[in-house]
Design a protein that fits this description.
By secondary structure, the chain is α/β, with parallel strands linked by helices. The protein has helices at residues 57-78, 106-114, 148-166, 194-201, 212-223, 249-258, 274-282, and strands at 50-51, 54-55, 81-94, 122-129, 134-140, 170-176, 180-182, 231-237, 261-267, 287-292, 298-302. It folds into two domains: 46-77 and 131-306, Rossmann fold, CATH 3.40.50.410; 82-129, no CATH class. The chain contains seven helices and eleven strands. The chain has a seven-stranded mixed beta sheet, with helices on both faces.
């Protein structure tokens, strides 16, 4: 059962109240021995990433790769234009409401007033370049994420928050295991309180199993009614779903209708969930896979670039019609 929408979820992933009764100052980061706070305003800087107590320069570079790809996706969405009453007159369109009378074509309105027809005169179509937008970060905090995976995903989340800050995007944050924990700031899911988001991202506590459905449902609900805007979800997990609708059929359909791009990061070298391929592929999102090497470093690559295997022609077969239609 998901918590009430207006409820600020405590830092304990199990949903239990903290020792101080929930009266901890929100400006103070949660107390944990595994918090490695960011000291740099630039996502991907080396000093942001201390994995397992050792400085992991390769992990920092890997996070930079993720940020670069996501930034490209954000920029393409921002470059789009959408109808806006305060935008510039870009082209013409048919009048839909008489509120648009100020932008009407004088010649056409003169003809229309003299020879009234059901077809209204044309007006300026005002458009505005979309700025800002929203990104919801969905982070797996199940038991299997404990340790290095949790610390590395914390670094990724902090990098995404800093990237969102540079693009003036609103950020939402959901942690999930077998339940979904949706965080809100002043009763709002999407916020520009980036410092608060960085504090949430620094937590590394993990427990429970894995459920994709509830977290996606919670995040997509917040995108409803936000129009044609720059909308993204970053989904971070290390396992296949073990409860709920494992195929998330309703959520995939809803994401496509809302125009939300779902980018996924799978952490692990085996058992890549095919459902992640479907989720990101159907929503034009990017897929990453992160693997842990023997020396403890995290290596990441784009999974979607390896989905289509090259087709090799079988030259042993002879086409009898080849010469006829050559």
């Amino acid at each position: 059962m998901a918590p009430p929408e207006d409820m600020n979820i405590p830092s304990d992933p199990e949903g239990q109240l903290s020792d101080d009764g929930g009266k901890r100052n929100e400006k103070q980061p949660p107390k944990t021995t595994k918090v490695f706070a960011s000291k740099s305003p630039d996502p991907g800087d080396e000093e942001d990433y201390w994995i397992g107590g050792k400085k992991n320069l390769e992990s920092a570079d890997n996070v930079k790769v993720i940020m670069k790809v996501l930034e490209g996706n954000f920029q393409r969405s921002i470059a789009l234009r959408a109808p806006h009453p305060g935008g510039l007159p870009r082209k013409w369109k048919r009048m839909n409401y008489f509120d648009e009378i100020e932008d009407v074509d004088p010649y056409e309105v003169m003809l229309w007033s003299e020879y009234t027809t059901p077809t209204l005169p044309r007006v300026h179509k005002r458009e505005k370049e979309m700025m800002g937008g929203e990104i919801a970060i969905l982070r797996d905090v199940s038991t299997s994420m404990m340790g290095v995976y949790s610390e590395w995903s914390s670094s990724v989340v902090r990098g995404v928050v800093e990237l969102a800050r540079s693009k003036k995007m609103r950020v939402g944050y959901v942690e999930f295991n077998h339940r979904s924990y949706k965080y809100k700031r002043n009763s709002k899911f999407f916020t520009r309180d980036y410092q608060w988001m960085l504090e949430l991202a620094s937590k590394t506590e993990c427990s429970g199993n894995t459920n994709y459905e509830d977290s996606l449902k919670d995040a997509l609900t917040e995108f409803r009614g936000r129009g044609l805007r720059n909308k993204h979800i970053l989904f971070i997990t290390d396992g296949i779903p073990t409860s709920g609708d494992c195929d998330v059929l309703d959520e995939r359909t809803r994401a496509k209708k809302l125009g939300v791009c779902i980018h996924s990061i799978f952490i692990g070298s085996k058992n890549y969930p095919r459902i992640l391929q479907k989720i990101s592929g159907e929503t034009s999102g990017t897929q990453f896979i992160a693997t842990r090497r023997k020396d403890g470093t995290i290596r990441i690559e784009r999974r979607d670039k390896k989905l289509l295997a090259p087709v090799h022609e079988d030259k042993s077969q002879v086409d009898p019609f080849g010469k006829v239609f050559a």
